[in-house]
Amino acid sequence: MVPYSCGLDAAADVIGGKWKPRILWALHHGPMRFGELRREIAGVTEKMLIQQLRELEARDIVHREVFRQVPPRVEYSLTGLGQSLNVALAPLDAWGAEHLEILEASRAG
Amino acid sequence: MVPYSCGLDAAADVIGGKWKPRILWALHHGPMRFGELRREIAGVTEKMLIQQLRELEARDIVHREVFRQVPPRVEYSLTGLGQSLNVALAPLDAWGAEHLEILEASRAG
DNA sequence: TCAGGTACTGACCGGAAGGTAAGTGATGGT
DNA sequence: ACCATCACTTACCTTCCGGTCAGTACCTGA
């Protein structure tokens, strides 16, 4: 495996995957339960959501906390690193929002 | 196809793909010939480079200009939209650079 | 004459990413 | 007794992204 060629390369690797940006953005407002995330992020399946959450957890971007209750309660939140990442993502979100129409128009598929 | 759920979603779609961030970053310093890009971006194949360039061109992120010469000369440069994208990408690059070590450490592979 | 540089194009292939559907185990509601 | 909720887990299948390799057309320099 080749080392990252620049910071952008590394960042892209972290937020890579179909659902990670959505997850990051959803957690922006505070901790969320698994089921809440699932409902918030339209179209995601349980398997995909967990998979991506686990990857973000392994990267120390999100924190997973289990409350031993019945029914089980698991909360996901951003770590300090995750919050700093979200800050860095803000301009990109703004860019996308500003050019939404052209981007929708030139979209493949 | 579902509309983009937020600006970040749209932006991620534009810079998605293994080589696009590298291409954007390489063009940051000004127009480049195909061969120059190829040498600058270590590991990319001709097919992949062209494919990604064409996609970026279709999105109006890069501009392609052909000089009818012998040998052929083709230059790629950022459009206005591409430059604004690069500006929005800068904080993300800085974030990646700042946490390069942890990110390398927690990398899968 | 023939390799080498220029900027591509196209056929084929493998693996990984992502999607579908079903099952798990404890508990609370009707 | 039965179903739903919670947070997962597993097996299986399909799609597609990216990689290899070969070929194209043109001209230059040895």
TrEMBL record, chains A, B:
<keyword id="KW-0238">DNA-binding</keyword>
<dbReference type="InterPro" id="IPR036388">
    <property type="entry name" value="WH-like_DNA-bd_sf"/>
</dbReference>
<dbReference type="GO" id="GO:0003677">
    <property type="term" value="F:DNA binding"/>
</dbReference>
<feature type="domain" description="HTH hxlR-type">
    <location>
        <begin position="6"/>
        <end position="104"/>
    </location>
</feature>
<dbReference type="Pfam" id="PF01638">
    <property type="entry name" value="HxlR"/>
</dbReference>
<keyword id="KW-0805">Transcription regulation</keyword>
<protein>
    <submittedName>
        <fullName>Transcriptional regulator</fullName>
    </submittedName>
</protein>
<keyword id="KW-0804">Transcription</keyword>
<dbReference type="InterPro" id="IPR002577">
    <property type="entry name" value="HTH_HxlR"/>
</dbReference>
<dbReference type="InterPro" id="IPR036390">
    <property type="entry name" value="WH_DNA-bd_sf"/>
</dbReference>
